[in-house]
Design brief:
Elements: E1 3-7, H1 16-29, E2 34-39, H2 44-47, H3 59-63, E3 74-75, E4 81-84, H4 90-106, H5 116-121, E5 130-135, H6 140-149, E6 152-158, H7 163-180, E7 188-196, H8 200-212, E8 217-223, H9 234-238, H10 247-262
Parallel strand pairs: 1-5, 1-6, 2-4, 2-5, 6-7, 7-8
Antiparallel strand pairs: 3-4
Length: about 260
């Protein structure tokens, strides 16, 4: 059965999409069959692989039962790497799921809304070695769905003054969902420190995060991509793992190896 890895942080701009894309590409390069699922209404991940993703059936149609999940899986330009796209209409689905989630809690009924992603992926899980979920930070219902579905939850956190607050909130909420779950769920969760630099402040922040969350921080940290945005190409901006001459490329390769051991690939 394929492993499900979810990238979550309730704080925006933490590196979820970059982590998802580079991890997916790195695992696919090593021969694993990988499915990347875009759960962000902005469709940032989808736009990197499909030109007309906004007019393509994807997670929206599958979650609404209009099409089978098998019918919204698309090949990419990369061997072993497949994608289920998202688009702006995903917002309507998220709001509906949030309303259902709220009503179930209010009425103290079995909450089936938190099982939607898990049930959606069950029929195809054996077809992939790894399924990676890239997430929207704004909806707790999606985080709950990911907790129910995932074997490993990666919480990316970039180095800034609010980093600790964002990751602390996300970790506490994940723990709360696990403790209150009506199903027997036991996902692991690990913190990934991103956008590090060689400055003293960066080093101190890394040490603070490691002290604050012992035993659940990856040994690998991801260096900041320092090339100016106007000089970045599609290749450099998103597939940083493909550039072995950069620190960030080497970091992502190291992360792939660490995750392989974490989920027993």
């Amino acid at each position: 059965m394929g492993k499900i890895i979810s990238c979550n942080n309730q704080k925006g701009g933490s590196g979820k999409t970059a982590t998802s894309i580079n991890l997916a590409k790195g695992l696919a390069d090593e021969g694993y069959r990988v499915l990347l699922v875009d759960l962000d209404l902005q469709g940032n991940t989808s736009s990197k692989f499909l030109e007309d993703f906004e007019n393509t059936d994807g997670i929206v149609e599958a979650i609404n039962g209009k099409v089978l999940i098998q019918d919204v899986i698309y090949s990419t330009d990369f061997e072993n790497l497949f994608i289920i796209p998202s688009k702006l209409e995903w917002l309507d689905c998220l709001e509906e799921m949030a309303r259902e989630d709220y009503l179930m809690e209010e009425q103290e009924r079995t909450n089936t809304s938190v099982m939607r992603i898990r049930k959606l992926l069950d029929p195809i899980r054996d077809e992939y070695d790894v399924i990676i979920l890239d997430n929207n930070p704004s909806y707790k219902t999606i985080l709950k769905n990911c907790v129910y579905a995932a074997d490993l939850i990666i919480v990316p956190v970039n180095i800034d003054k609010n980093a600790i607050k964002g990751v602390d909130y996300t970790i506490r909420y994940i723990s709360k969902v696990i403790n209150e779950a009506e199903e027997d769920i036991k996902p692991d969760f690990m913190i990934l420190i991103t956008k590090t630099t060689r400055t003293k402040v960066s080093r101190e922040c890394v040490e603070l995060i490691r002290r604050s969350f012992p035993d659940i921080v990856f040994s690998t940290t991801i260096a900041n991509q320092i090339a100016p945005a106007e000089k970045q190409t599609f290749f450099e901006d998103y597939f940083m793992i493909d550039n072995p001459n950069t620190k960030v490329g080497k970091d992502y390769r190291s992360l792939v190896e660490e995750i392989r051991k974490e989920v027993n690939l």
